[in-house]
Please model this.
Amino acid sequence: AQSVAQPEDQVNVAEGNPLTVKCTYSVSGNPYLFWYVQYPNRGLQFLLKYITGDNLVKGSYGFEAEFNKSQTSFHLKKPSALVSDSALYFCAVRPWMDSSYKLIFGSGTRLLVRP
Amino acid sequence: NAGVTQTPKFQVLKTGQSMTLQCAQDMNHNSMYWYRQDPGMGLRLIYYSASEGTTDKGEVPNGYNVSRLNKREFSLRLESAAPSQTSVYFCASSEGGFSGNTIYFGEGSWLTVV
Model:
């Protein structure tokens, strides 16, 4: 079965420190991988995606993610966290050959950045 | 830029009532989706439409129906609402045709069934 795991329900980090939000996946074949952010009472906003090529992907708001095929991971990172980064983060995967183009989501990780 | 627009934003229903969630996108996307979001469960796909004229069941279709009215619009209907359908519903769209295309989401519809 195809799935995405976000092992941490919540990540706490101090402002200015680096942050990592973890994601691992299980799909048949090559994956396309996505990160979304959700602020309270809002929809999901696209942050970045991995399609092919460079394993380090840069996205919006200073976020980046590293694709690791051997570990089937796609962790989200930011060198210096901001209080405004506090939100709910979702990792998602789409199998390469899935003709429905639908996304499979993880359960989400709440990021709390304290001042 | 409007993107994906869904209505209503908030709705309270009594058990057994019916309602339709409306969704429209102005990005000329081929594929559209309805997801529900529940605490600790991420987003689960209810129905999707890979292209105009087609609809398919997702992970949790029971109790729902959909209509792809045209390329822009994709509605979700609850025929007889149940408390288990209390959730946040998101409509989304993508270009389709390539699995690497980004899916864009609406702002959500908060539904409470009492």
In short: Chain B touches chain A through 30 residues (CB under 8 Å). Chain B is about 0% helix and 50% strand. Chain B has a mean pLDDT of 93.
